[in-house]
## 1
Amino acid sequence: MTETIVITDPDKDRYHTFGYISWWRQDIVRDATVLVVGAGALGNEVIKNLALMGIGNLLIADFDTIEDSNLSRSVLFREKNNGQRKVDAAAAGVKDLNPDVNVKAWHGDINFEMGMGVFRHIDAIVGCLDNREARLSINRFSWAVSRPWVDGAIQELMGIVRVFWPGEGACYECTLTDHDYQMIGLRYSCPLLARENLLMGKVATTPTSASIVAAFQTQEALKLIHDMEVQSGKAMMINGLTNDVYTTEYPVKEMCMSHSRLEPIIELPQVRSDKTTLAELLAIARGRLGPEAMLEFSGELVVAMRCAQCEEEEPVFKKMARLFESSATCPTCGSRRDMVLTHRITGDEAFLERTLAEVDIPPLDIVRARNGEERVYYELTGDKETFLKFS
Ligand SMILES: [Zn+2]
Ligand SMILES: [Zn+2]
């Protein structure tokens, strides 16, 4: 089959030269929605490339603010941006580069504040991160809803680019070693271990490594958008000292914890995390699954902190993994408090009138409802605009 190549007027069309590329479809690029997680050195380069190519919708996620040390590796930032949120400066940079691109800047923590439903509405996810915890979150979300993601990593003159398509070869978690788990475990498994050091480690790198790796990442995202073949579960290793570039394949782990898919997912356009209560969502679940149905959370929710000494209970309603060590200490007597935990809602709770947001469920998240062996996954679809309203 021969593709029709449309050649436009170079004086009128900024995408003119792309028309000469046999497989390039500007309409596909224009219709695509891409999520870039991380607006640091890699993120700046990926966002710049996507903007130049005329990507239709760009969601930029980051929780950081700009400091002068970012300026040596961030093409979208200027000195005057010091102190601003990275996502805002990056979004403004995109508009400046190419006003055709619709952008949404989202400032927050991907691990806890972005519902995994977001991933369902995205064509390709590009991870531009410097830590394992956020990579693992992206990996689990993308597996859960079956979306592909592109990982990039840089250190000095070294780089790695990897594509992970759920079900096609190894996933990011399959590649983790015991040491990696230890590093993440410091934050995950021990309740309330100090998390203050999170992301404090700075990765030494140059703008050249960032642009090399980001260029490959963007190309892989472009292939994903065009439904072209990608080498999922393999790593492209780039050694900028010896100029070696090679690929290596990871084995799939049998018992990998990331390999679980949420099915079936049911969209609830009327449900919003900040409006809908637990009681209301439970009623929806019971309407479908029967009066015994319950809601289940993926992690432990700390309902309260209880001090045995003072016989006092402080309401908390935060995921256990996001609490700091300091919150275990009783502010009155200084002794260590116990956590009151739950991971499901059965209808007997005293806090059923709390909204989903008030029990630390992020916007556009997907919540499991179960009755015996029967389970469904509800997407809080009413929250879509929080992440997917582009301008
Ligand atoms: Zn895996
Ligand atoms: Zn106390």
Note: The mean pLDDT is 93.
## 2
Amino acid sequence: MFVDRVELYVKGGDGGRGAATFRREKYVPKGGPDGGDGGDGGSVIVRADPNADNLAGLTTKKHWKAKSGEPGQGAKCAGKDAEDVVLLVPPGTIVRDRDRGNVLKDLVEPGAEVVVAKGGKGGRGNVHFKSATNRAPRQFEPGEEGEERWVSLELKVIADAGLVGFPNAGKSTLLSRLSRATPEIAPYPFTTKHPNLGIVTVGDGGFVLADLPGLIEGAAQGVGLGHEFLRHVERTRVLIHLVEPFPSDGSDPVHNYHAIRKELRNYVVPLDGRPEVVCVSKAELTGAEEVRAKLATDIGREVLLISAVTGDGLQLLVGRVAQMIGDLKRAEAEEAARKKPTEFPTEAAVRTDDFRTAPVANITPPDGATS
Ligand SMILES: Nc1nc2c(ncn2[C@@H]2O[C@H](COP(=O)(O)OP(=O)(O)OP(=O)(O)O)[C@@H](O)[C@H]2O)c(=O)[nH]1
Ligand SMILES: [Mg+2]
């Protein structure tokens, strides 16, 4: 089962009550206050974990509550803090406050986390309330209440490259051929209903490839599950646009290419500006090359011809995509470096260099030092 949206009720544990106790010792008839503080309540945390691949694990239980902190004890003993409850979700999960709608955090990086319901702080024990006028205070604080709310989690897949195209073009077959992913493949449209991710190895590195559900005309207006499908294209860097050479409905592949481009363009967040590699699939079928040539002429761009069955053209395709991703990542890194001033300007290094390279003749010796 693949689930990409869930709503959960979360509650942090209450803080433990502070204690109001007095020291009792032999020969000390009136021991002072010694009530310790209550422990802190546990928090509920949502964390991105690369091993989680969708939100299905969070559908069986809707309420997540952390435990309360333990109450304080006599002899200034603090109550134990309660443990946090950590919910693991795949990277790419957007965490929102359900009722206010605001984003609490977009968990992009593996390991990123957000506290969705903070546990209450433990109350102070009576030891803190002693004063000159009140040497035997009975006051203590109850613990703070833990936060509670409803949160909604939405997974928007993050991938380096995404496969787009009409249903039945061969997207899932291509993913299964290029990675170890095992998506469902069938000779009819709309086989894929949710994204599948795979890792394509290239040399020492690789990239994450997403097989996405097939798009149809009107997807950008929400036809079928258009929006549901298109939103998963939002966070892919490069598009691999797969064009079926012989659609079973007899439609024209060139027309179909433009139809998909139109849907990408008309989506809420225009997606047609993404770098795109265009491929005609099913290369081994007679006439596929003619379709490729016709499309290339029409769009005035390179169109590759590939076959997930024979493997033809796949090396070239993977090379192109890897190079595009590499270029984009480099550009992103440069951009990030430009925005962020270097923490330690290389000033110190420059000075050392200047000193070392300063011509010796310029150093004026102290008076009398030359003779
Ligand atoms: N001859 C040939 N058939 C292919 C090739 N790649 C895929 N197919 C066939 O095309 C059909 C559709 O393949 P899928 O991979 O399920 O297509 P898809 O684009 O993922 O389809 P949806 O998930 O419905 O959008 C299947 O019958 C595949 O066996 C290929 O390279 N050559
Ligand atoms: Mg598919």
Note: Residues 345-365 have pLDDT under 50 and may be disordered.
